[in-house]
């Protein structure tokens, strides 16, 4: 009599985890601050390797994997036209930049793919990671359709406490993107606070709390984290590792390498005042 129940449970679990291949209670919704980038400490920390989770999605099986070098991790925020805000990239410019990456043979990967990189196994040629911080609504309405059309994957670092805000993603939108296989969801704390100014308990609540809230909603492990405004210190990195994140990114400029520490990886900010032509020269 117990066998049908066990079979049903197995099928249900398989269904819930089907969308996880791309790779607590949620705090009250609050409006995010205007996008801003602040200076971060110069310390570089190293994280211990985390165990591998699963295989690559089937659709990537035919891509040759021969690359062992550093990886550019692009940093976007809002995809919106506002010449006065350099953290906002216009929709036309963003689409031109993504089209350039597609046309020149870049392979957009996720942090799930970096599990190979972490273990010293090769990546596809010309790998690149496209990331968005905060979880703005236009990541769904503008960026997602472009990425889906071009077949480019990306990671959105969501501030869990901002979900559902006027200019922010809803949980339904987050789930839809994650289940599409195009978007990987990462965490960006609960409230977007400066983690270096918080107590150990507060750090844990912000870092671990965001991971738990997002995982409860999407039903998949969240393995990547972004420090708000790029601010971190030894204690913050320690709590990030303790929370179970495999990777974390900063705002330090440059290509990402394992030697930087898997929880303090560099990124390349794509400014809103940069033309698509300039972007193309930077990523030939």
Automatic annotation (TrEMBL):
Q: List residues of the NodB homology domain.
A: 126-284
Q: Which residues are the signal sequence here?
A: 1-18
Q: Which GO terms describe its biological process?
A: carbohydrate metabolic process
Name the Pfam families for this protein: Polysacc_deac_1 (PF01522)
Give this protein's Gene Ontology molecular function annotations: hydrolase activity, acting on carbon-nitrogen (but not peptide) bonds
**SUPFAM superfamilies reported for this sequence:** Glycoside hydrolase/deacetylase
Keyword field contains Signal: yes
* GO cellular component terms attached to this protein's record: extracellular region
Q: Where in the cell is it found?
A: Secreted
Q: Recite the UniProt keywords alphabetically.
A: Signal
Chief location category: secreted
Coiled coil ranges: none
In its UniProt entry, what is this protein called?
Answer: Polysaccharide deacetylase
Recorded source organism is: Collibacillus ludicampi
């Amino acid at each position: 009599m117990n066998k049908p129940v066990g079979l049903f449970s197995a099928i249900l679990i398989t269904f819930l985890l089907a969308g996880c291949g791309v790779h607590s209670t949620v705090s009250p919704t609050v409006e995010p601050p205007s996008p801003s980038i602040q200076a971060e400490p110069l310390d570089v920390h190293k994280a211990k390797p985390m165990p591998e989770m699963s295989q690559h999605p089937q659709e990537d099986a035919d891509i040759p994997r021969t690359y062992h070098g550093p990886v550019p991790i692009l940093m976007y925020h809002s995809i919106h036209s506002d010449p006065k805000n350099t953290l906002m990239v216009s929709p036309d410019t963003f689409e031109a930049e993504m089209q350039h990456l597609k046309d020149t043979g870049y392979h957009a990967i996720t942090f799930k793919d970096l599990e190979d990189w972490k273990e010293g196994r090769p990546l596809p040629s010309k790998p690149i990671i496209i990331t968005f911080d905060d979880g703005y609504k236009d990541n769904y309405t503008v960026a997602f359709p472009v990425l889906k059309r071009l077949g480019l994957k990306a990671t959105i670092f969501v501030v869990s406490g901002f979900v559902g805000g006027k200019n922010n993603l809803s949980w339904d939108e987050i789930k839809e993107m994650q289940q599409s296989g195009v978007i990987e969801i990462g965490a960006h704390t609960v409230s977007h606070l400066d983690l270096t100014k918080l107590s150990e308990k507060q750090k844990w609540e912000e870092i671990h709390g965001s991971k738990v809230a997002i995982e409860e909603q999407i039903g998949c492990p969240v393995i990547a984290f972004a420090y708000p405004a790029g601010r971190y210190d030894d204690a913050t990195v320690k709590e990030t590792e303790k929370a179970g994140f495999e990777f974390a990114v900063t705002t330090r400029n440059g290509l990402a390498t394992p030697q930087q520490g898997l929880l303090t990886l560099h990124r390349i900010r794509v400014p809103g005042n940069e033309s698509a032509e300039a972007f193309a020269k930077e990523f030939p």
